[in-house]
TrEMBL record:
Parts of the chain that traverse the membrane: 35-59, 65-84
Signal peptide positions on this chain: none
Pfam families: Rce1-like
Entry annotated with the keyword Lyase: no
Domain CAAX prenyl protease 2/Lysostaphin resistance protein A-like per the UniProt entry, residue ranges: 81-168
GO biological process, one term: proteolysis
Keywords: Hydrolase, Membrane, Metalloprotease, Protease, Transmembrane, Transmembrane helix
Source organism (scientific name): Corynebacterium aurimucosum
GO molecular function: endopeptidase activity; metallopeptidase activity
The protein's name in its UniProt record: CPBP family intramembrane metalloprotease
Keyword Iron-sulfur assigned: no
């Protein structure tokens, strides 16, 4: 819950401070807090098995002994914490950072930068065990794909649902 709130604050502050110059509706849109389109929802449905497969492959490339070490947590099934973590990451990385970077540098530059920044907190996995490295390219690629959905839809709603569903799906498959 604390992680979710930390990820939420930059967007809340952005909306608060930009509400007079942009208006609340436009400030919310800048951080992706608006409804997307049916096309983006359809794209998310198509991308779900792709991201699930990539994530599952990443987990399977890690030695089983590494996955049972203290500090390695796999999402096991549906949990409120797993869903909040995914939504929080989407609010911050695709909503706040993605919104800023995509407006400034477009899909390729801005999205690559937000995906690289999304990877940074996941680098902590290497301090637990270097054999967890196969998860890192998966994190980057997933961050990039979710950013592309954000770019296309202008919304983090589809990204949040997709991210949470993939996390839960991988937890169920790997568990």
């Amino acid at each position: 819950m604390i992680e979710f709130l930390l990820f939420l604050w930059p967007s809340v502050l952005y909306i608060f401070f930009r509400r007079k110059s942009l208006g609340v509706s436009r400030a919310r849109a800048h951080v992706g807090l608006r409804w997307g389109s049916w096309q983006a929802a359809g794209l998310s449905l198509v991308l779900f098995p792709v991201l699930l497969g990539i994530g599952y492959l990443g987990i399977r490339l890690v030695p089983t002994a590494s996955l049972t070490l203290p500090g390695v947590v796999l999402v096991q099934g549906v949990s409120g914490a797993a869903i909040l973590r995914a939504v929080g990451e989407e609010i911050f990385f695709r909503g706040f950072l993605g919104g800023l970077f995509l407006r400034r540098w477009g899909l390729w530059g801005g999205n690559t930068l937000q995906a690289a920044l999304f990877l940074v907190p996941h680098l902590v996995l290497l301090s637990v065990d270097v054999h967890l490295w196969p998860i890192l390219p998966v994190q980057f690629l997933s961050g990039w794909i979710l950013g592309a959905v954000r770019y296309r839809s202008g919304s983090i709603i589809e990204c949040s649902i997709l991210h949470a569903a993939v996390n839960v799906g991988i937890g169920l498959l790997a568990g």
